[in-house]
Here is the input.
Amino acid sequence: MTTPVIGVFDSGFGGLTVLKALLKQMPGARFVFLGDTARLPYGSKSRRTIARYAAESAQFLVDQQEAEFLVIACNTASALALDAIEEAVSVPVLGVILPGAAAAAASSKTKDVMVIATEATIASHAYAAACQANGLRAVEKACPLLVPLVEEGWVDHPVTAEVVRIYLAELLAEAQAAGQSPDTLVLGCTHYPLLRAVFERSVPEGVRVIDSAEATAAEAAQLVMAGRASEAMHMPSIRCFATDSVEKFERLGSRFLSLPVGKVELVDLGG
Amino acid sequence: MTTPVIGVFDSGFGGLTVLKALLKQMPGARFVFLGDTARLPYGSKSRRTIARYAAESAQFLVDQQEAEFLVIACNTASALALDAIEEAVSVPVLGVILPGAAAAAASSKTKDVMVIATEATIASHAYAAACQANGLRAVEKACPLLVPLVEEGWVDHPVTAEVVRIYLAELLAEAQAAGQSPDTLVLGCTHYPLLRAVFERSVPEGVRVIDSAEATAAEAAQLVMAGRASEAMHMPSIRCFATDSVEKFERLGSRFLSLPVGKVELVDLGG
Here is the structure.
């Protein structure tokens, strides 16, 4: 059997945390990652614009890079453009939000969860809807300082610990005001897994931290490998593309992937 | 005589701090502000892409809004696209970097200055070059956490004070290592005037804080009003356009302008 080609798409390079989780699940697959860095961040743009950008990116991965399966490693695109992507390509498409919500449901005993993400993801209420479909009540909070803190490299830094403490206190107060007892925190942004240790130190006793990237990778592996014989282990194959500014991608990407990202290839999708 | 129409352009709404300074200098002028919010931030994009976006935005203000004078209220566009804008339109164009450097030269006795700005502006070294042309030595530092802190509304907040303290300490150490004695700090980003009080509390005794927005407004007023009779005072006239996401513009804009921005009109520049 042939090695499956899996396309992984993000507006930037944060989705490399999802690629990292995919590599653990499917070490024998070939991965093609596209960061639409020329047009990031998607978060400040309208649904119509995001849908067009995401569809073009998905078509590049399927039509030009022969991806047989697409992982949308971007919470904003998963929240706002999954339908548009599914219409644009003819291969299976998996976003990060439904697997994240399903993992939260599997984790939570109280059925009350907390979700943190970027402003655009929270404004879409996609996690709240997915949680509700899984029988959960969710309080949501946008945490716009966390991505810049990660990109500044302040991952293990007192300022970041204090920002996390403040955001969590506000979130817990909101849950309490709503009469909820959350026992699960969903990291709904691909940058946040780099702060997982900070969150685990800051949450109250008994609250579990769920990473959408890991939940998505596990579900992708199940879908991709169904009916395939397990393969001999070999070195992973990864090709990275970006639509602009490969320099920052190359500089920061390895932190997200925990591997060198190598040479990032520039691609022009117009716009 | 007619009331002059002044076009003010930024990639987002941070340039409203420049508009605020312009209003003080020219209360009788008519202002048309364009925030290219669909395509922000310019900072992560290539010079070629920024030049095209900035030229299209400038043409909108001159050809469709009849601006007779353009203020580029965006440090990144001033650093990377001033030539492209001057080629694209036939009216006078003023960026924020040269007035900021000139004001620093007028302020500094030691002729050593510090410049803080976004990553893209610092990477362009446009301030360092403008400072050198004014007989100054400059140390520069990118401060990528400050824009998100301002947009989160944490203007008078202990976390912001601590981030400013850390950035300034790094900058002063760099100046010292270069054998310089800076007595002036240039705020090279249109978001930073909202943190002016924090900076003034944090800089060492004897260091003056210079705001490029104020320096630019003063120079614009001189250029625009030259040869015009001074006008009777009346209420300022401001029209604001954005290329996407008018909601965040309307919500945060009044903080930057210290006036309600009113209804922001959506305009499509393509791309």
Summary: The first strand of chain A starts at residue 5 and ends at 10. Chain A has a mean pLDDT of 92. Chain A touches chain B at residues 37-41, 44-46, 49, 144-145, 147-149, 151-152, 154, 158-159, 162-163, 166, 244-245, 248, 271 (CB under 8 Å).
